[in-house]
Design goal:
Layout lengths: L2 H9 L4 E2 H11 L8 H13 L3 E7 L6 E6 L1 H12 L11 H12 L2 H27 L5 H29 L8
Antiparallel strand pairs: 1-3, 2-3
Helix pairs in contact: 2-3, 5-6, 6-7
Length: 178
């Protein structure tokens, strides 16, 4: 995920200061890791340096001075170009789940990998239940539901892979093409 582009997108709605951007980010991407305030300001500094945002009004309503930032024409062009780019499918398989199974097969045996996969499967199923409940919560907004659907689809794919792999490590003579 590109924090810079997400902030540009949030600024497309109009000028905002760092606290507003952090809150808007966390609301817009409800299942993502919350954005740290330091990351917001560091990113804004880079965006300003690159001419993609400009400082706006300074505000001192009951607290520290807050500077708002606005999208520049160049920033709007960069945002539009980013939104038009198709994301390439990941070229490499990089997953802690896969790495643990492979290392268990190398360092131990199929039984160890099977035990790990069975325990991991239970954790995935618990997370699926949590996400399904979050989707059905009447307080959930559209962003919550879309993010939960995304996570559920990935967990479902992991579970299908785990089922196949549990069967393979239980019977190492099983055909590789099945």
């Amino acid at each position: 995920m590109s924090t810079s582009h997400v902030l540009l997108g949030l600024l497309a709605e109009g000028p905002k200061h760092g606290y507003e951007l952090k809150r808007a980010h966390d609301a817009c991407l409800p299942r993502a890791k919350p954005l740290a305030f330091g990351q917001v300001y560091a990113t804004l500094g880079r965006l300003q340096r690159d001419g993609l945002v400009a400082e706006g009004d300074r505000d001192r309503d009951s607290g520290p001075e807050r500077t708002s930032f606005a999208l520049t024409d160049q920033g709007r062009e960069r945002l539009e170009a980013w939104l038009a780019e198709v994301e390439a499918p990941a070229p490499f398989v990089a997953s802690a789940l896969l790495a643990k199974v492979m290392v268990a097969l190398l360092a131990a045996d199929g039984r160890q990998a099977g035990r790990y996969l069975t325990a991991q499967r239970a954790a995935h199923q618990q997370r699926l239940r949590e996400l399904t409940a979050a989707k059905l919560d009447p307080e959930s907004g559209l962003g919550d539901v879309i993010a939960a659907d995304f996570a559920i689809s990935h967990l479902d794919a992991d579970l299908r892979w785990m089922d196949t792999t549990i069967a393979r490590v239980a019977d190492p003579n099983r055909g590789v093409r099945s």
